[in-house]
């Protein structure tokens, strides 16, 4: 499968020019920043194809692989990823740990354990925010200049896409608003596989990363043909991911004890329509 370079991933600046994202009707919560709009990207793509410094895996507490995006990342990275994950002693919900990328085009994999929405209740937002914040901190600590997030917890873990996107956008914006942190990252990418997740980001981005309006905006928009701008966007994926039951490593490595209620194995027949897709 061909890889997608950082230069091929559209920034918010480009997406606003293409009118893929439209300004909100209400006054945005945060001030517009051209610098930040050049740092933030949204793309609907298979995250295993991104040639960036770090991708963020929607992992479970065991860190030993699973279905959906977790299984896809482990398959693409090869068996060495599982071997390194076995040395990490798992990970708590709301946190993350980092490994090498091995056979992936990304240099690192950050394994973030998102909350199970119906289990964590009122703590879900805090825990999900912790995933994004810890992942950003790990990226900076390990010298990663670009990081791509999968849509954490929006699959079988049941987190509504709209709510999840708000938590992700707010956490990233607050992180980048710290001057010392913003300088250490060149790009933060929200990589979604499903249309519902991309739509949620497109709807909520203007509140956190509004467009920069200038007097010359009409001239800037007419300087480049829309078709030329659109040609810069990579094609969205057309094939569905394999079913979770076809991608999971052995059950023995998925659930180590009968009492381990931090990780839930969800049977395909029990998953509501639209949830058993590529993200945890």
UniProtKB/TrEMBL annotation:
Residues 216-230 have a biased composition (Polar residues). Residues 27-209 form the Macro domain. Gene3D superfamilies: Leucine Aminopeptidase, subunit E, domain 1. It comes from the Eukaryota. Residues 265-280 have a biased composition (Basic and acidic residues). CDD domains: Macro_OAADPr_deacetylase. It holds the Pfam family Macro. This is A1pp-domain-containing protein. Residues 216-280 are annotated as: Disordered.
